Amino acid sequence: MTKKESQIMDVFWSRGHPMIASEIAEQIEEMSIYSVQQVLTRLLKENMIQVSGIAHNRNAIARQYLPVMNEAEYLASIANSRTTCRQFTENFVECDATLQELNELQAKIETRIRELQEQKP
């Protein structure tokens, strides 16, 4: 993913709702509306985003876009090895994870451990 593609995807992931090109351009100061539109076209071709609807923008109609996958799903798709997944998890734990986030992660880990223990003959 290019830097500009990453910047636009970050806007989508942080907002969590359909957006039109001009709204995205407002969020990324160094990118013009024309650059945003070009990157959106590439992201559509790469199946990273989809058109989710139509919105009225002043006197025009504009397409609304949404990411095809959330940020975690995207990261999982590029993390194709156990080592990479483990590094992501360790980094998450060591960074600014909240107590609630750590408790949620712990619950998922404990559930997975029980599943694996039940599979053993």
| Fraction in beta strands | 5-15%
Class by SSE composition: alpha+beta
In the CATH scheme, what's the topology name of the largest domain?
Arc Repressor Mutant, subunit A
CATH superfamily of the largest domain: Winged helix-like DNA-binding domain superfamily/Winged helix DNA-binding domain
- Overall shape: it is elongated
Give average pLDDT, whole number: 89
End-to-end CA span: 43 Å
**Uncertain segments of ≥5 residues (pLDDT<50)?**
none
Strand order of the largest sheet: 1-2
Radius of gyration: 19 Å
Total number of distinct structural domains: 2
Helix content: 55-70%
* SSE sequence, one letter per element: HHHEEHHH
> In the CATH classification, which architecture of the largest domain applies?
Orthogonal Bundle
Can you count the helices?
6
Query: Under the CATH scheme, which class of the largest domain?
Result: Mainly Alpha
Biggest sheet architecture: 2 strands, antiparallel
Total strands? 2
Give an account of the 3D structure.
By secondary structure, the chain is α+β, with helices and mostly antiparallel strands. It folds into 2 domains: 3-67, Orthogonal Bundle (Arc Repressor Mutant, subunit A), CATH 1.10.10; 79-119. Helix content is 62%, strand content 14%. The protein is built from 6 helices and 2 strands, in the order H-H-H-E-E-H-H-H. It has helices at 3-15, 21-27, 33-45, 71-78, 82-94, 99-119; strands at 49-57, 60-67. The chain has a two-stranded antiparallel ribbon. A hairpin with a 2-residue loop joins strand 1 (49-57) and strand 2 (60-67). Helix 2 crosses helix 3. The N and C termini lie far apart (43 Å). The relative contact order is 0.10. The model has no long low-confidence stretch (mean pLDDT 89).
